[in-house]
Amino acid sequence: MACSLRIAWDDGLTAYNFGPQHPLAPVRVELTMALARELGVFDAPGVSFADVEPASRELLELVHHPDYITAVERAGRTLEPDDPYCLGTDDNPVFPHMHEAASLITGASVAAARAVWTGQAEHGANVAGGLHHAMPKNAWGFCVYNDPAVAIAWLLEQGAKRVAYVDVDVHHGDGVQTMFYDDPRVLTISLHESPLTLFPGTGRPTEIGGPDAEGYAVNVALPAGTGDAQWLRSFHAIVPQLLREFQPEILVTQHGCDTHALDPLANLMLSMDGQRSIHAALHELAKETAGGRWVLLGGGGYELVQVVPRSWTHLLADAAGVHIDPATATPESWRSLVQRRTGEHAPLSMTDGRTPEHVPFENGFDPDDAVDRAIQATRKAVFPCHGIDPTL
User: Fold this and answer.
1) Where is this region: Disordered (predicted)?
2) What number of other Cβ atoms are within 10 A of residue 13's Cβ?
3) Sorting pLDDT into bands at 50, 70 and 90, what band is 168?
4) Number of domains the chain is built from
């Protein structure tokens, strides 16, 4: 049976645009939606679209300081940098109507969460969202407002008692972790490249939550060069056990696809097929541990043509209950759109030709393997907080 999926969408979501030289280009979202549409994902039974409104100031203030919101509004009008709030940096240049664009993305993530929480759909999606770095009082890492955190805070306001957040972006989900570091109602799990080699320099396994929430911040810091098999081994050694123990009422996931080997800003080595396995695994865990209630968001991804549209189309298809054979050719009309919009040649199929497999961690720990050491460090740091034996 096809899944019920509500997609939060408005053409204005592509207005979040730091300029033509910035790596976070909105064309990646445009090309994703076009590819998913042409492959029939939106025609599947149970797929619908949610209207999107900008997040109100009241919503933004669930996680952001009022003075910061005012600074964003002002910067979008004056186009002047505001150093205390990290507005006007190379990572976060100011642009016209910045507040309106960022608040629309946040409103879309809240709309996706609302659809799931109220039972309008099993799953809610906002591929333009996942801006997980923004901090309570400043922009950070291409992120002005932290839409995942606002959506989670909104769910808590509605009465949710347990929300799990799993972040598979190559960068640590530092903003979301910060905002819920002392709140045991929210379990944050981030799998990312080691802070020794990548921005933002946080996300060590010893970051486990505040005094009243120990074990509710979980960080898996993977060495540069980690590929499909090792990444999947890490995921399956940690995430399912914690979600089964936590039993969230709703699962929120961030699907940055900058873990791909072609991504220009990071150093992990996943394939399209490995990323497709991740999407499917999180979908299954949502069904197993959260009664199917799943909010899925985009995130990073800077190979704008070869990676992002294909990865997120697979994500939306999985959420919609649509099987896209990895060998499926990309539509000619979509390739033409890619050429017109970017001047690049589009990928010819929906696969990188890989068959990702992994050896379960439970089959044996190798102390000489850097990935196994990363897995073990995380398990030892947080599993006992949840009554789980880290050696099993």
Assistant:
1) 342-364
2) 23
3) very high
4) 1
- Residue 135 inside a domain? The answer is yes
For the chain, what percentages of helix, strand and coil (3-state, to nearest 5) are there? Answer: 40, 15, 45
Asked, for residue 58, whether it belongs to a domain, the answer is no
* pLDDT beyond 80 at 61: yes
CATH number at residue 264: 3.40.800.20
For residue 310, being part of any structural domain is answered with: yes
- DSSP E strands, the chain: 5-8, 47-50, 123-126, 163-167, 186-193, 217-222, 250-254, 294-297
Any residues with CB less than 8 A from the CB of 142 and at least 6 apart, and which?
Answer: 18, 22, 23, 24, 91, 92, 131, 133, 300
Stretch 230-239: mean pLDDT, rounded? 98
364/239 Cα distance (integer angstroms): 18
Task: Spot the catalytic one: 64, 132, 133, 172.
Answer: 133
Task: Copy the structure tokens of residue 78.
Answer: 């004056």
Residue 3 pLDDT exceeds 90: no
User: Contact, 186 vs 279, CB < 8 A?
Assistant: no
Encoding tokens for residue 257?
């696809």
Sheet holding 250-254, edge to edge: 47-50, 5-8, 123-126, 294-297, 250-254, 163-167, 186-193, 217-222
CA separation (Å) from 357 to 15, 232, 299?
39, 8, 25
What kind and span of H or E run contains 312?
helix 308-320
Q: pLDDT at position 123, please?
A: 98
Q: How confident is the model at residue 1 (pLDDT cuts 50, 70, 90)?
A: very low
Cα–Cα distance between 278 and 287 in angstroms, integer? 14
Render pLDDT for 311-320 as a digit per residue (tens, 0 to 9): 999 999 999 9
**Domain extent for 153:** 5-50+107-386
> Under 8 Å CB-to-CB from 153, ≥6 apart: which residues?
62, 63, 179
374 three-class SS: helix
Q: At 117, give phi and psi (nearest 5°).
A: -65, -35
CA distance 138 to 136: 6
Contact 277, 234 (CB under 8 A): no
Q: Give the separation between CA 69 and CA 59, rounded to whole angstroms.
A: 11
Examine the pLDDT at 209 and tell me if it is beyond 70. Answer: yes
Query: Is 133 designated active site?
Result: yes
